Every structure is written in structure tokens, then in C-alpha cells.
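BUG: 3D viewer hangs when loading the predicted structure for this chain

Environment: internal workstation, default settings.
Expected: structure renders.
Actual: progress bar stalls at 90%.

Input used:
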Amino acid sequence: MTADTTTWRRQAHLAVVSSGERVAIVRLTSPGEPPRILDGTAAAIWSETDGGRSAEAIVAALVERFDGAPDVIADEVSRFLHRLEDEGVLTREP
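C-alpha cells produced before the viewer hung:
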């Protein structure tokens, strides 16, 4: 597994509500769009995207939290972060 030092940040135009193990995200620039609801591992990944952590640090935190092979977790995290980027919820900084 290669180290991914990309830092992921939440977009500024979001309203986010966390309740237990669920997170609701609303893009304020897209009125009428339904909220994006995250739960389980998706909410766990989101909680690690505080803007100061690299993808590698996010994976390390999740490996400690969940039972799974680091390479598998890294692949899942990478796919999910890129999906949220495509949806306009996250942005990355090299």
C-alpha cells in the first residue's frame, strides 16, 4: 500500500448535522436537492475528513476502529472520498 498524503476537506457550502452514527449533509448551493445521509462506515469516514488529515491518516484511523485488511479499507476509503468529491461535498489538496 502506497502512502496517500492527499488532504481531504469539506466544502464550505455545506450544512451538516450529526446524530449518533448518522450524518446528514446538505449542499447549500443546490436548493431542493435532498440531503446526503451517511451512516455506518460512510459516517465514520466523514468524521475523519476534518481538513487536517491525509487519506493515509484517515485509513489508519479506520483500521484501528474496524476489523479489516488495511489494503481493503484503503481501497474503500479512496473510492468513497472520490465519490464525495464528484458530488461536490469534499475537495482535496495535494
